[in-house]
């Protein structure tokens, strides 16, 4: 059976879990990462020398990097679901996935580590405020896009872009911050996501 290595509290692991659930793929998840088995163990490093979760083991296939794993699952098992075969339609999904991994993640990292992870290295109030402002600004970009995009990020069909950004938006809504815009288009989009059974499984209130 397919194995997914990584703790369920990891946002990157949940990208893969949500993708697999949407596609109806049977899998076994193994707890690796902080609080569980160490990713520095030789067994894990043989699969991913970066010592990061998640890792996918699908028969002889071993992959790491959450967006790459999600693309692989959709391409191999999706039959056109989640990731279109058409080059332009696929590119529109992937550009939002790449934006999440670069621009959006870089914006929220300091505030999230300081406010929710209580990291001693991320307690400068000036940098926290700057990170929150940048985070809200990036979410504003998504808000403006969703105002005209259709029901989902890449248009009328649910895709990998919604999984990746849905998890990010969930984190944004659950992180305690003094200033968070209302962003009605994001709220309406999240309401559409949250009725999906797979989304309910991997967007729990107690995990950010």
Can you characterise this structure?
The chain has two domains: 2-77, 3-Layer(aba) Sandwich (Glutaredoxin); 87-202, Up-down Bundle (Glutathione S-transferase Yfyf (Class Pi), Chain A, domain 2), CATH 1.20.1050.10. The chain has eight helices and four strands; from the N terminus they run E-H-E-H-E-E-H-H-H-H-H-H. The chain has helices at residues 11-23, 42-45, 66-77, 87-115, 125-149, 160-174, 184-194, 197-202, and strands at 2-5, 27-30, 55-58, 61-64. The longest helix is centred in the middle third of the chain and has 29 residues, at 87-115. The protein is globular.
Shape: globular
Low-confidence stretches: none
Note the main sheet. 4 strands, mixed
The CATH topology of the largest domain: Glutathione S-transferase Yfyf (Class Pi), Chain A, domain 2
Instruction: Specify the number of helices.
Output: 8
CATH architecture of the largest domain: Up-down Bundle
Number of structural units classed as domains:
2
Kindly provide the name of the CATH class of the largest domain: Mainly Alpha
Percent helix range = 55-70%
Q: List the secondary-structure elements in sequence, H or E.
A: EHEHEEHHHHHH
Provide the spatial order of strands within the biggest beta sheet.
Answer: 2-1-3-4
Tally of strands: 4
Keywords: Transferase
Family: Belongs to the GST superfamily.
Domain GST N-terminal: 1-81
Pfam family, one: GST_N
